[in-house]
């Protein structure tokens, strides 16, 4: 049976093989596939950096796409990880800012000539290298645990050396350690991200910057203080100008939120701004002044809200009024009457004094507390005289003007010769 029609059978086998080859070639014919997001590895960077230069890659030109031509069966097995893209800064640099890109594939069925790149060069900019030191400032954010506030937040380094392209270094204004204190109630150390800011408080791209000695941020040592709300008391000194009386002193804020250790704030009840800070001597109008309360905080005590440091003090005056008080001459105490002489007021029955005070003070004036006297110690002869009456008032009152009184010194009658004073 095997030898029957042998030629025809061999022809059938050959035809079948040829048909199979045709089908395979039709299904696995050469085609292409695109691969994207391939990063170019820069080689021999020291060709630039050894000359005290640094380089930057412009416009993400180190990320390329490729189109690969191969048989379908080969392409189906490939991923982006099978391709290696390099740019040799020693061998392939052109015009000082272009570095040629070479791409190879780990699958030997793909030749270099089968790979078409989306770009031929990595675009770089080369400039002088620079290095400077900058202060590290802790920038707090978040909300501390209930009843607590950050006392101190001290970075492990107050200065940090930053190296990189001179144009970027020149833009740097400050360096911040970003400290999130949410929920803090105890002292602790936290590793903080470093932010580099320019003159407009915008973050600087740190891709090409190096923090000398630091790669993962900076530790910040945090101490926590207990908060307490206490009252504020403001005193004053001095006396307003003539014709005016102190009426009222008000101030804002009336309470302060302070912070300190539990021991330091335990017995603290109030903060006092002393009178020397609010001197109203000689003022003749309502006056407002701002007083820095931080000068009067006890040692180791601080304000929680910096805005409370300036206390607005309002001093309100009242213009004094005058009240006429009539004092009978019989109530005038005569002092140091000259020997052998007597005082004669003639027809004068009473004298008028004008007492100054606020309306409330004058309403409470007790006229019996006004003492009037006439000191005749400098007189020795008979005659008619005019002298200022000595008037003694309760402390809160004053006289509008001196009160003059006219009197005569006459000889005592012979029958009434005695040395008593009137």
Layout: helices, strands, pairs:
Blueprint: H1 6-27, E1 30-43, H2 46-49, E2 53-57, E3 63-71, H3 72-75, E4 83-88, E5 93-94, E6 98-105, E7 115-117, E8 121-141, E9 148-155, E10 159-165, H4 166-169, E11 172-180, E12 188-198, E13 210-211, E14 218-234, E15 244-252, E16 255-260, H5 262-265, E17 270-273, E18 287-292, E19 302-303, E20 310-319, E21 321-328, E22 332-335, E23 341-344, E24 350-357, H6 359-363, E25 371-375, E26 383-388, E27 390-392, E28 398-399, E29 404-411
Parallel strand pairs: 1-4, 8-11, 14-17, 22-25
Antiparallel strand pairs: 1-3, 2-8, 3-7, 4-6, 5-6, 6-8, 8-10, 9-14, 10-13, 11-12, 12-14, 14-16, 15-20, 16-19, 18-20, 21-24, 23-29, 24-28, 25-27, 26-29
pLDDT averaged residue by residue: 90
Q: What's the end-to-end separation, in Å?
A: 177 Å
Overall geometry: rod-shaped
Number of strands: 29
Radius of gyration: 50 Å
Mind summarizing the main beta sheet? 17 strands, mixed
Treating each run of at least 4 consecutive H or I residues as one helix, how many helices? 6
- What structural class do the secondary elements suggest? mainly beta
- The percentage helix is 10-25%
What does this 3D model show about the protein?
Helix content is 10%, strand content 49%. With 422 residues, the chain is mostly beta strands. The strands form 5 sheets. It has a 17-stranded mixed beta sheet that branches. A 3-stranded antiparallel beta sheet has the order 15-20-18, with no helix packed on it. Strands 21-24-28 form a 3-stranded antiparallel beta sheet. The radius of gyration is 50 Å and the shape is rod-shaped. The model has no long low-confidence stretch (mean pLDDT 90).
């Amino acid at each position: 049976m095997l030898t029957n029609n042998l030629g025809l059978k061999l022809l059938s086998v050959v035809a079948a093989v040829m048909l199979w080859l045709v089908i395979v070639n039709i299904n696995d014919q050469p085609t292409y596939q695109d691969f994207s997001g391939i990063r170019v590895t820069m080689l021999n960077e020291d060709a630039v950096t050894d000359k005290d230069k640094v380089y930057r890659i412009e416009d993400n030109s180190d990320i390329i796409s490729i189109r690969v031509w191969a048989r379908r069966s080969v392409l189906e097995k490939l991923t982006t990880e099978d391709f290696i893209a390099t740019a040799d800064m020693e061998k392939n640099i052109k015009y000082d800012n272009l570095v040629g890109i070479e791409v190879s594939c780990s699958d030997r069925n793909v030749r270099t000539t089968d790979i078409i790149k989306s770009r031929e060069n990595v675009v770089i900019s080369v400039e002088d290298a620079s290095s400077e030191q900058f202060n590290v400032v802790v920038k707090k954010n978040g909300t501390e645990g209930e009843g607590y506030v950050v006392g101190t937040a001290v970075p492990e380094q107050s200065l940090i050396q930053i190296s990189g392209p001179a144009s970027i270094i020149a833009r740097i204004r400050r360096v911040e350690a970003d400290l999130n204190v949410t929920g803090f109630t105890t002292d602790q150390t936290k590793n903080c991200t470093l932010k580099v800011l320019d003159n407009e408080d915008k973050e600087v791209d740190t891709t090409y910057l190096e923090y000398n000695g630091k790669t993962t941020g900076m530790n910040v040592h945090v101490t926590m203080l207990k908060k307490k709300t206490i009252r504020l008391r403001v005193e004053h000194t001095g006396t307003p100008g003539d014709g005016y009386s102190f009426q009222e002193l008000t101030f804002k804020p009336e309470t302060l939120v302070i912070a300190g250790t539990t021991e330091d704030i335990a017995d603290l009840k109030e903060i006092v701004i002393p009178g020397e800070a609010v001197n109203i001597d000689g003022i003749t109008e309502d006056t407002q002044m701002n007083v820095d309360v931080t000068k009067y905080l006890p040692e180791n005590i601080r304000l929680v809200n910096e805005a409370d440091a300036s206390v607005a003090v309002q001093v309100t005056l009242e213009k004094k009024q005058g009240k006429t008080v009539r004092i009978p001459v019989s109530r005038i105490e005569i002092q140091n009457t000259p020997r052998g002489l007597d005082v004669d007021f003639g027809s004068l029955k009473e004298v008028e004094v004008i007492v100054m005070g606020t309306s409330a003070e004058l309403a409470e004036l007790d006229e019996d507390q006004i003492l009037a006297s006439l000191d005749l110690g400098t007189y020795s002869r008979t005659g008619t005289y005019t002298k200022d009456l000595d008037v003694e008032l309760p402390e809160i009152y004053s006289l509008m003007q001196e009160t003059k009184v006219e009197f005569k010194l006459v000889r005592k009658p012979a029958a009434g010769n005695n040395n008593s004073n009137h």
